[in-house]
């Protein structure tokens, strides 16, 4: 087996997060972007130390798990929704199996099989009553942890409240396109005129904007040459009331009259309403959505979203969970895992805009949130004031440094680190507090599995864990884990 060689095989399983396993003779090859049971053709990209990685070239035969037709016109060229041909129940089962296996390997022992898979509010038992009886038993001096299954998003489609679309072309010197990057490509952009991850109001806005600039033959920004005008279309939508913010991101290299675009957008027949149209000027060399200057073409630069009874101000760059309804499931689970925080000092580390902190605050003695992004901290302070919460304090800074400066001692800790997990130098400081309970929220289960080694070495054990699916059709899933250093009875 050599680099560049082409093989055919069947994907036997998918390891977290998106690693298809194909066996060729005695070799294990990892091929991403597939579904278990598919017969595929792939090219070897890497081969060293007995490990091989391949690039998917073609699906020769569908998987038995693919029980429905694609729901959008750019599947599978767009790499966003890898699993849309699977039923949602099958997606949930696959994600749950991946994460559970990963955590059990990291712990060195298994969960009690009492899980419930929850789809659209309906529970399906994933374990028998006799197996559930294992929960609470002592194994090697510790209590067998409880697996709470996977909780699905309340809605499978049209769940994203924020979307960043790129301007470009689908092929060299092709017509202007506006949408999502082609799988495996830095430059090719596919027009997402029927993307099912967003509300139809967003696709109507996308089509309107694209048509406007196509008719005027306006240039898009070319990343290598750093020339051109159009860069991105950023849309945000409130699930609570349908309010929409429209952001056109361009360079300052050209000047165009955007008044007709504003009028065309406001004339659209939408279920919700556009409350703000903004023009963001961005001359950055990097391909990111940012603003050197913001011009309000219409309305305002924010709207308000409600989450579990709390109000949050959402503006252009506010961090907010992209699936509002599934975020309520996530935060309700975290609140359940936290238990009674009455009169307790709570540390919310990597607190973002302070959503979890504010949910814990009503009965806590005090909640201290620590977040490195200053804009998020300012938003957290504003939202806490909006919700009348006086016992929330938010500190801007790196958790690694802030913990050396804070004089308060926590009774319970919430962790919601970035994808790479907790900084290895911050972890000993967190463990040194010796709090009884820690709730760890992970958007990348491999990072959680790695960090579990340090938690277990410090005497902590997993008590409960589950998955929450905020990103239907995709490879991503959230994991919530309750850790305790209580000694077994």
Short description:
By secondary structure, the protein is α/β, with parallel strands linked by helices. Helix content is 22%, strand content 33%. The protein has 10 helices and 26 strands.
Describe the overall structure.
- By secondary structure, the chain is α/β, with parallel strands linked by helices.
- Helix content is about 20%, strand content about 35%.
- It has helices spanning about 90-105, 130, 200-215, 260-265, 325-340, 355-360, 375-385, 400-405, 425-430, 445-455, and strands at about 5-15, 20-25, 25-30, 40-50, 50-60, 115-120, 120-125, 140, 140-145, 145-150, 160-170, 175-180, 190, 230-235, 245-250, 275-280, 295-300, 300-305, 310-315, 345-350, 365-370, 390-395, 410-415, 435-440, 460-470, 480-485.
- The strands form six sheets. An eight-stranded mixed sheet has the order 10-25-26-24-23-20-21-22, with helices on both faces.
- A hairpin with a 2-residue loop joins strand 2 and strand 3.
- Helix 1 runs parallel beside helix 10.
- The protein is globular and about 65 Å long.
- The protein starts with 5 loop residues before the first strand and ends in a 5-residue tail after the last strand.
Low-confidence stretches: 123-135
Structural class by SSE content: alpha/beta
Query: Radius of gyration, rounded?
Result: 24 Å
Shape: globular
- The chain-level mean pLDDT equals 92
**Based on DSSP secondary structure assignment, what is the total number of beta strands?**
26
**For the terminal residues, how far apart are their CA atoms?**
54 Å
Described by strand count, sense and barrel closure, the largest sheet is: 8 strands, mixed
Helix proportion range: 10-25%
Strands of the biggest beta sheet: in what spatial order?
A: 10-25-26-24-23-20-21-22
Beta fraction: 25-35%
Question: Number of helix segments?
Answer: 10
């Amino acid at each position: 087996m050599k680099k560049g060689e082409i093989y055919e095989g069947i994907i036997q399983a998918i390891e977290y997060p998106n690693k298809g396993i194909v066996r060729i003779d005695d070799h294990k090859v990892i091929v991403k972007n597939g579904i278990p049971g598919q017969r595929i053709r792939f090219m070897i990209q890497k081969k060293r130390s007995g490990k091989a990685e391949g690039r998917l070239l073609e699906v020769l035969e569908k998987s038995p798990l693919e029980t429905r037709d694609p729901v959008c016109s750019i599947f599978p060229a767009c790499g966003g929704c890898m699993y849309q041909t699977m039923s949602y129940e099958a997606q949930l089962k696959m994600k749950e199996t991946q994460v559970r296996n990963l955590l059990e390997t990291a712990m060195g022992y298994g969960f009690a099989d009492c899980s419930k898979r929850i789809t659209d509010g309906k529970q399906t038992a994933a374990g028998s009553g006799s197996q559930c009886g294992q929960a609470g038993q002592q194994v090697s001096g510790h209590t067998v942890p409880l697996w709470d299954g996977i909780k699905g998003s309340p809605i499978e489609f049209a769940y994203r409240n924020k979307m960043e679309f790129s301007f470009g072309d689908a092929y060299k010197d092709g017509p202007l396109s506006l949408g999502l990057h082609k799988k495996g490509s830095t430059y090719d952009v596919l027009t997402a005129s029927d993307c099912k991850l967003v509300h139809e109001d967003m696709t109507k806005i996308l089509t309107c904007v694209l048509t406007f600039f196509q008719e005027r033959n306006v240039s898009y920004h070319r990343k290598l040459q750093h020339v051109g005008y159009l860069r991105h279309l950023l849309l945000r939508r409130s699930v609570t009331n349908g309010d929409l913010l429209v952001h056109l991101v361009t360079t300052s290299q050209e000047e165009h009259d955007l008044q007709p675009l504003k009028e065309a957008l406001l004339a659209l027949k939408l279920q919700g309403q556009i409350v703000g149209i903004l023009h963001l000027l961005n001359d950055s060399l990097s391909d990111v959505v940012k603003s050197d200057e913001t011009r309000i073409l219409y309305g305002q630069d924010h709207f308000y979203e409600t989450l579990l009874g709390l109000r949050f101000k959402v503006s252009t760059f506010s961090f907010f969970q992209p699936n509002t309804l599934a975020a309520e499931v996530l935060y309700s689970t975290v609140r359940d895992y936290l238990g009674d925080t009455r009169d307790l000092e709570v540390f919310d580390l990597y607190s973002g805009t302070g959503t979890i902190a504010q949910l814990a605050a009503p009965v806590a003695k005090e909640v201290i949130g620590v977040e490195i992004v200053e804009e998020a901290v300012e938003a957290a302070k504003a939202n806490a004031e909006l919700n009348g919460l006086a016992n929330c304090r938010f500190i801007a800074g790196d958790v690694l440094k802030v913990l050396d400066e804070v004089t308060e001692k926590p009774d319970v800790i919430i962790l919601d680190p970035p994808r790479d997990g907790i900084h290895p130098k911050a972890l000993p400081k967190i463990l040194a507090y010796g709090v009884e309970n820690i709730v760890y929220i992970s958007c990348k289960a491999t990072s959680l599995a790695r960090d579990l080694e340090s938690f277990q070495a410090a005497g902590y054990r997993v008590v409960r864990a589950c998955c929450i699916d905020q990103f239907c059709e995709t490879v991503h899933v959230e994991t919530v884990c309750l850790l305790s250093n209580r000694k077994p009875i």
